[in-house]
Amino acid sequence: MNIPSSGAVALGLVIAAIAATGGMANSGSTSTVQCGIAKTTQNGMLALEGTLTSPVAVSGEYRFAIQSSSNGGSSNISQGGYFTANANEVMPLGKVMLNNGSSYDVVFDVTVDGKKIECDQNVTSLR
């Protein structure tokens, strides 16, 4: 089979890109994970949602725990479990609705490749 030189170069670039992508998926994936808590208002309620995104596919575990209090009382909510996130997609990991004006404390963390990542910062969007 006779491949023109421009075709051979293109084929070489494709093979190099595939090899580079494969290496990235297996090394340092936790350093590329971005996560945080998105706050929005929905129907007069405060919505808190844990979100995660990564340039490579990742899987792991998450914990999303909220302690809240208001004039109507207090609550402790704990969510968590296993997740798998596709590359470059925002993955919601837990969501709660609270009375607007409630005081609250949130703990949100994920574990990827055996490494725990604290995700307690507020984010507008990870997109």
UniProtKB/TrEMBL annotation:
Keywords: Signal
One Pfam family in the UniProt entry: CsgH
Domain CsgH-like: 33-119
InterPro entries reported in the protein's UniProt record: CsgH-like (IPR048632), CsgH_dom (IPR047726), Curli_assembly_CsgC/AgfC (IPR053722)
TM region(s), chain numbering: none
Endpoints of the signal sequence: 1-19
Protein's recorded name: CsgH-like domain-containing protein
